[in-house]
Amino acid sequence: MTKIMIIGANGGTARILIDRLLAETDHELVLFLRHAERLAQYQSQARVTVLDGDVLDTARLAAAMAPVDLVYSNVGGVDLAAQTRSILAAMAQTKQQRLLFISALGAHHEVPGKFGAWNEQAIADFLPGFRASATLLSESTVNYTEIRPAWLTDASEVDYELTTADEPFKGTEVSRASVADFAMTVIAHPEKYQRASVGINKPNTDGDRPSWL
């Protein structure tokens, strides 16, 4: 049995992952988020611990992280770099090594063409945080998997392809269910994709911007 910590546990992808882990594995979960009452439906489950906390409170984060085997981060925002520093500091304090980290397309200047130019403008406020976090991960000693999704949809489908950090990003969109599915794969085989940055998109969705915009 593995104990998994999910930081930012109320995120859309995180909630899909939580439900799949509970349905398909015997893993124990530590769900860490602000306003923990938002996940009150999990409080009564024996395999789940729901903790209220701010990821920038490194001491509280480390205390919650100490007993786990793997950390999954679903945090975001314009202060992502500060949150990433806190996560890495807590991992150093607790000697945690395995991290799955949700980032975004563009974190490595890897999105080509008109879509890349549009994406730079569309998420201009957030890209500095993604890019600083990518540098922090690469300069750390943790065995991270940085997951860079395309623009996210709520489609109930699992349909995706992967690219490396050295390859141009493909496609424009991907479902949260697909991202959660890839996370499930890494959790099942944590020896894979170590110290790697992985782009994830739905095949055949190339264009100048996502289809609904």
Enter the CATH topology name: Rossmann fold
- Determine the CATH superfamily: NAD(P)-binding Rossmann-like Domain
Largest beta-sheet details: 8 strands, mixed
General shape: globular
How many beta-strand segments? Answer: 10
Quote the average pLDDT.
97
How do the strands of the widest beta sheet line up side by side?
A: 3-2-1-4-5-6-10-8
Helix proportion = 25-40%
Keywords:
NAD-dependent dehydratase; Rossmann fold; globular; 213 residues; alpha/beta; two-stranded parallel ribbon
Written account of the structure:
This is NAD-dependent dehydratase. It holds the Pfam family NAD_binding_10. The chain is of the alpha/beta class and 213 residues long. The protein has a single domain (3-201), classed as 3-Layer(aba) Sandwich (Rossmann fold). The protein has six helices and ten strands, in the order E-H-E-E-H-E-H-E-H-H-E-E-E-E-H-E. The protein has helices spanning 12-24, 58-65, 80-94, 113-122, 127-139, 176-188; strands at 3-7, 28-33, 48-52, 70-73, 98-102, 143-149, 151-153, 161-164, 173-175, 196-201. It has an eight-stranded mixed β-sheet with strand order 3-2-1-4-5-6-10-8, sandwiched between helices. It has a two-stranded parallel ribbon with strand order 7-9. Strand 4 (70-73), helix 3 and strand 5 (98-102) form a beta-alpha-beta unit. Helix 1 crosses helix 6, helix 2 (58-65) packs across helix 3 (80-94) and helix 3 (80-94) runs parallel beside helix 5 (127-139). The chain is globular and about 45 Å long. The mean pLDDT is 97.
